[in-house]
Amino acid sequence: MNKTLNINVSFNHVIPLQIFKSEESMNGIILGLHGYAQMAESMDAPLKSLAGNSFDYCSLQAPHLFTTPNNSYVSTWMNRKNRDLHVDYQIEYFNNFNDQLCQNAYDKTLKIGFGFSQGASSLYRMVFLSKLKIKLAIIYAGDIPPEIKSLNHSETHEIETKFILVHGDEDNVMTAEKIKEDTNWLKENNFNVELINYSGNHTIDTVALNSVSNHIGKLL
Questions:
Q1: Were both Cys, which of 56, 88, 99, 121 would link to 29 (CB 3.0–4.6 Å)?
Q2: Ranges under pLDDT 50 in the chain
Q3: b/e 133-146 (16+ beta carbons within 10 angstroms → b)
């Protein structure tokens, strides 16, 4: 039976998040973070594909809603104005979500993060700045935020997350140069990093997802 968690964030803002339960055995939970100008449901299909029958999954909704020219609602994880405030706001959101997970029997559960584009950058914040203990972080077409790169080794050495960086060879947003820079930073800070390349642009690719699924299977 699926479950909805109501997450309290700043300014008395409540975000309902639905956890989709696995049909067979539950080995952990996969947390999805969508890209800029998307909504949580945009991650449902790739998360369902990765979860299979082995994991529960939950797509987190970015907290800042806005409307497109055709009056559709979309959202963003960050705004450029008052950037530090929005980072704090985001971490509060992740910490409150962690508290709700712990209250619903997920406190000792294997947690995997899957972030796309802006959501991948937010996943770095989740790993390094929040209370959530992420075993595997799938960084899909997103870069390391500056507040993470400013951390020193004493602030990162206790984090045991493994990273998979996914990159399309035609991606003009997350370029090969950025991927190389981020990979080097992670390795210099003694993190286990693997790179998955695929033929394509700044989109979620089915072939790349299959490769990611193989890595997730090794955790079981």
A1: 56
A2: none
A3: ebebbbbbbbbbbe
Nearest to 7 by CA among 18, 17, 20: 17
Burial class (CB in 10 A: 0-12, 13-18, 19+), 4: exposed
Number of neighbouring beta carbons within 10 Å of residue 159: 15
pTM here? 0.95
CA distance 81 to 22: 40
Report how far residue 64's alpha carbon sits from residue 163's, in angstroms, rounded to the nearest whole number: 27
**In angstroms, what is the C-alpha Rg of the chain?**
16
Q: Measured between alpha carbons, how far is 134 from 123 in angstroms, rounded to an integer? A: 9
Taken in order of first residue, the domains within the chain and their CATH numbers are: 3-217 (3.40.50.1820)
